[in-house]
Design goal:
The chain is of the alpha/beta class. The protein folds into two domains: 32-192, Rossmann fold, CATH 3.40.50.300; 207-250. It is 40% helix and 17% strand. It has ten helices and seven strands. The protein has helices spanning 17-22, 44-52, 96-107, 122-135, 146-151, 158-165, 180-191, 207-223, 230-238, 242-250, and strands at 32-38, 56-60, 67-75, 78-84, 112-118, 139-144, 169-171. A seven-stranded mixed β-sheet has the order 2-3-4-1-5-6-7, sandwiched between helices. The chain is globular, with a radius of gyration of 18 Å. It starts with 16 loop residues before the first helix and ends with a helix.
Length: 254
């Protein structure tokens, strides 16, 4: 039996097809677009290969020297396009890699962002995790290299971690293909709205800053009603982020 796959236009509520096109991503014939983010040396490429197999190709981001890898997989009669973002420690955009990763998550609005972390060095990976959760409402934490953590006698309470972060946590050892089926299922459930995320956001902000952020967020939403996460953008504007300022002025990706 033939399966009808919806086009990007049919599923535009899941991602920003226009913004993704400007980022060089063709969303035709895919139900969902998945971003794969993480620090360098977390096994992110191994996770990407485990999810996509040989259905992948590489190139450069438009106007950048940064390499882009993309592939796909099918699950429960739905097609997923997977974009492997550059490995980065931050989204504060001090390098091309950080700019590419941030713009994709923020302006492309992927259906789900999978954040790959090293389970044996979880604490140092959390900076990027928390930054991503400030931007997107749909994310999955891929707790990779669990074999390394076990070898170092590191135990992680995944339920507590998931509760504190407000997103699903899936332990994996991608090099041995362990946890990959569970990761695919979780991605599907988040993408289809079967799992609702409540991502951790910064609290205990000084009152004067919170007031300024709320006022600026309201103005951003009025001027750009389709823009994602006006609160995070307001923070970046208050910090004088020149690239965000320029993106708003030019209407880039919006």
């Amino acid at each position: 039996m033939d399966v009808k796959v919806k086009t990007a236009c049919d599923t535009c509520a899941h991602f920003n097809a226009k913004g993704l096109k400007k980022l060089g991503v063709n969303t035709s014939n895919f139900n969902f677009v998945i971003a794969l983010a993480g620090n360098p040396n977390t096994g992110k490429s191994t996770v990407f290969n485990a999810l996509t197999g040989l259905k992948q190709h590489t190139g450069n981001w438009p106007g950048k020297t940064v390499t882009r890898a993309e592939g796909g997989f099918e699950y429960n009669d739905q097609k997923y396009k997977l974009i492997d973002l550059p490995g980065t420690y931050s989204l504060l955009s001090t390098s091309e890699d950080e700019e590419v990763a941030r713009n994709f998550i923020l302006f492309g609005k992927p259906s789900v962002t999978v954040i790959v972390v090293d389970a044996s060095r979880l604490e140092r990976n959390l900076n990027l995790v928390l930054q991503i959760l400030e931007i997107t409402d749909k994310a999955v934490l891929c707790l990779n290299l669990m074999d390394e953590a076990k070898r170092n006698n590191i135990e992680i309470n995944t339920r507590t971690l998931a509760r504190n972060l407000g997103i699903p946590v899936v332990p994996t050892s991608a090099r041995f293909n362990k946890g990959i089926p569970e990761l695919i299922q979780t991605i599907s459930e988040v993408a289809n709205g079967e799992i609702k995320c409540n991502p951790h956001r910064i609290k205990n902000i000084p009152k004067n800053i919170e007031i300024a952020v709320k006022k600026l967020s309201a103005k951003i939403e009025k001027q750009y009603p389709t823009i994602p996460n006006s609160r995070w953008i307001a923070f970046r504007l208050l910090e004088g982020d020149s690239q965000i300022i320029n993106a708003l002025k030019t209407g880039e990706f919006i």
